[in-house]
Structure formats: C-alpha cells, structure tokens
C-alpha cells in the first residue's frame, strides 16, 4: 500500500484562514473518500449535509453515526474538542455516535493512525472541562472540552489504520461487533463496565512452570474470576526443553506482552480442542506443543538483552517518555525535576541523556515547546495573550511576553498581527 492512499489533499481549504478549519476540511474529505462503515461493511460513509453537533458522518446502509476527531502528530493523552455542554449532551443521548480518531503528519499531510472508538466506551468521566474563555475574548465565557484518550480502555481503541497500514477489514468489524456486545444504554451501567475493563487490563498476563512434586495453591476471586489454560507433558526430554526455554527454579514466572500472550493462547486453544475432540494424531499434537514451546522460548530469549544494548534502549525510552510528558503537561508548572520524578530517574542523569540524544537541554526543550504552542494559539484562536500565556505554562503574561520577544524580536500581539497580515496577503496572491 503506497503512502498516496493516506495523503490528505493539500489543495483543499485554501479559502480558510484558520488552520483548524483547514485541517477539518482536509481530514473530513479524506474520510469521506476512503473509509468504509466499520459496523456493516458498506464501502462508503456519507457526510451529514448540515453542521450537526457531534456527528460528521453516517452510513446510508445501517444509519450508524460517526464523529471524526483529528490531531496532528501523536495523539497523546488529550484531544481538543468543541463546546463542553454540547459534547456531554451528545455522548449521553440514546443515539450517540461512534468516534473516529485520526492522527496525521502535519508536514507530509499523511494519515498515520485511525481508530474507531465504539459509542459505548464514552462516558462523561472521559471528557475534561476546559476553563472558560477570558472576558476579553470574542466568545467570552465559552467553555470547551478535551477528550481524555488515555482513559479509553484498550478494548475500545480499535485500529483501522496503524502506522500507515490498513488493518484487515473483517478483523476490524469483528472487533467492533465484539465491543457492541458490551453496549449498555444506561449511563451508570456503561461507567461500571468501563471501570471493570480498566481493572482487567491491569492484570498481568503471565506464563509459569510448575515442576514435578511441587505443591502449589492458587484461586480466583469469586466475584471477579480470572481464567487460566494449562498444558501438561512429560518424557525424558521434558527437563531439556525447560532448560532450553530459560525456565528454571526459582525463576518460574514470565510476564508476557499482549501480542505474545494472544499467540500462545491461540495455540493452547488448539491443544484444548484436540483433547476435547479426542483427536488421535500424536504427530500433530506434538507439533503444536513444540510450536507453543518455541513461542515461549523466543519471547524469553528476546527478553535477555545484552546489558549495553538494554542500557541504550532504556535511555532512548526515557527520552521519549520525557518528550511525551512535555507534550501532555506543558501547560502546568513543569520542571526537569518533576519529569525526572515521574520517570523515577536522577535529575542529572535525565538531563545528560536528553541533551545527548536531542542536542538541546531538556529545560530549553520545554521552553521551545511552550513557545511553539503559543504561536499556534496566537494565530488560530481569538484567545487573549494573557489566557494563552496561562495555558502554555508561563508563570505570568509579562514573563511570557519577555520570553516570546527574545525568540521572535516582537511581542505576542505584534506577532499575531503580522501572521494574520501575511496570511491575508497570501490569500490575495492566490
């Protein structure tokens, strides 16, 4: 699949001055041209002819409704949305829509990710109320909201596009149908269900070995039981296989990634099916068992990294996590010490690896990011300079103006006027 299939049409929306309006036109047009109905499989979903609140598309076949939310770059923890009251009213109604969540590359204008979030996974707790606009703003007192993407359980984050690759259509529809089996119109029941899923998702997926003559005891909670699958085998080569797999007393338990867990679970299901059907094909049974052991062995082997490789990967991971924290919390009183504490790292160590990998000190990266965000708000919103300084994490409007002038040589107000003037001139030339 070529990247052209995920390319947004940059020629659209040129008549709009606002970047947010341009992005909306580009992303909605792309969805209307490329996305099928995940619920019934109809090749196209249609755009509502009018500006309906919290609903952009519908399927002409099954009449299911969809709302599109897009964000440039990584999704992160939050997605900005419109009016808080309208959003809450819509998601708590009996005909609330499914949500399409898109992330795209702002430079290449290419769709990177697209999820469908089933309607039953939205409750008011997943919506954050923003502060009212300042009295000096055109829409003084207006209250917006943020979708807290990180609060949506993984069962409700169904990928249609992942890393610029289409997921299998049949699989997407199966996952969506499975999620609908959990649907509850009652808002309280829906909230309870999501709380249960969050608890389930915190339970580690593990594989463990019980050696011969070893006494063990375990049981599930009667109110919220878990399930387990097991396979027993013996023979002269059993100890050899266990040694090759990396199992050995007292290291009995291995925690699995979700991907490996699902692969092993599928093989266990086959073995259980063989037993239940009394299949007498020893060669086939032994083959599945060896494949199961091979999967476990591969996972364990991959987890045994060389210390230096692991150290390098850890430092890279720390830096990426630090960047994510900056992107998500730049509007707060964010410091290098705060980030180090969040990551459980020494402040000096974090500063060293960040500067080495990014080529800029973490403290300056935070400031650069805040300035970049303020530039976007100055140009795309009618918010006051004071309000923008606040939501971008500056201690005071005067400090914000001082730092902004150091970056651009002009004040935030002058920058806003010059950007709008350049944009107007560009439109006239076109």
Describe this structure in words.
This protein is of the alpha+beta class. It folds into three domains: 3-123 and 149-200, PvuII Endonuclease, Chain A (3-Layer(aba) Sandwich), CATH 3.40.210.30; 206-303, no CATH class; 308-429, Homeodomain-like (Arc Repressor Mutant, subunit A). The chain contains 14 helices and eleven strands. The chain has helices spanning 19-34, 84-91, 169-180, 187-202, 238-245, 258-276, 282-303, 307-329, 336-343, 347-358, 362-380, 385-391, 397-408, 412-429, and strands spanning 46-47, 57-58, 65-72, 78-83, 98-105, 110-117, 127-129, 144-148, 158-161, 206-208, 253-255. The strands form three sheets. Strands 1-2-3-5-6-9 form a six-stranded mixed beta sheet. The chain has a three-stranded antiparallel beta sheet with strand order 4-8-7. The protein has a two-stranded antiparallel ribbon with strand order 10-11. β5 and β6 (110-117) form a beta hairpin. The longest helix is centred in the C-terminal third of the chain and has 23 residues, at 307-329. Residues 199-203, 248-253, 304-310 and 424-430 have low confidence and may be disordered.
Major beta sheet, specifics?
6 strands, mixed
Task: Please state the structural category.
Answer: alpha+beta
- What's the CATH architecture name of the largest domain? 3-Layer(aba) Sandwich
Q: List the strand order in the largest sheet.
A: 1-2-3-5-6-9
Uncertain regions: pLDDT < 50 for 5+ in a row?
A: 199-203, 248-253, 304-310, 424-430
């Amino acid at each position: 699949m070529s990247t052209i299939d995920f390319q947004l049409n940059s020629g659209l929306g040129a008549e709009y001055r606002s970047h947010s309006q341009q992005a909306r036109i580009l992303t909605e047009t792309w969805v209307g041209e490329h996305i099928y109905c995940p619920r019934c499989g109809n090749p196209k979903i249609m755009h509502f002819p009018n500006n309906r609140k919290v609903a952009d598309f519908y399927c002409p076949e099954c009449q299911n409704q969809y709302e599109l939310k897009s964000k440039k770059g990584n999704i992160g923890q939050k997605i900005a949305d419109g009016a808080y009251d309208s959003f809450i009213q819509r998601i708590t109604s009996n005909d609330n829509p499914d949500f399409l969540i898109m992330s795209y590359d702002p430079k290449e204008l290419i769709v990177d990710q697209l999820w469908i979030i089933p309607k039953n996974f939205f409750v008011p707790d997943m919506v954050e109320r923003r502060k009212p606009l300042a009295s000096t703003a055109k829409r003084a007192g207006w209250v917006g909201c943020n979708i807290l993407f990180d609060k949506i359980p993984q069962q409700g984050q169904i990928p249609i596009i992942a890393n610029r690759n289409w997921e299998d259509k049949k699989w997407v529809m199966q996952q969506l149908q499975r999620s609908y089996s959990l649907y509850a119109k009652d808002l309280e029941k829906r909230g309870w269900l999501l709380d249960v899923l969050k608890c389930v998702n915190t339970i580690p997926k593990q594989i463990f070995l019980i050696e011969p003559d070893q006494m063990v005891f375990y049981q599930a909670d009667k109110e919220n039981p878990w399930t387990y699958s097991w396979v027993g085998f013996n023979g002269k080569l059993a100890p050899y296989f266990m040694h090759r797999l990396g199992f050995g007393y007292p290291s009995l338990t291995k925690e699995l990634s979700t991907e490996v867990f699902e692969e092993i679970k599928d093989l266990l299901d086959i073995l259980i099916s063989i037993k239940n059907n009394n299949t007498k094909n020893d060669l086939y049974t032994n083959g599945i068992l060896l494949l199961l052991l091979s999967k476990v062995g591969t996972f364990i082997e991959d987890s045994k990294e060389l210390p230096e490789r692991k150290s390098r990967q850890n430092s890279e991971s720390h830096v990426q996590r630090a960047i994510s924290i900056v992107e998500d919390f730049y509007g707060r009183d964010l410091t290098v010490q705060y980030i180090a504490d969040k990551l459980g790292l020494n402040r000096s160590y974090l500063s060293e690896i960040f500067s080495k990998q990014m080529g800029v000190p973490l403290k300056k990266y935070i400031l650069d990011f805040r300035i970049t965000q303020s530039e976007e708000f100055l140009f795309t919103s009618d918010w006051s300079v004071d309000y923008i300084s606040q939501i971008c994490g500056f201690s005071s409007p005067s400090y914000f103006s001082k730092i902004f002038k150091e970056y651009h040589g002009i004040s935030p107000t002058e920058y806003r006027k010059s950007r709008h003037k350049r944009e107007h001139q560009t439109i006239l030339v076109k």
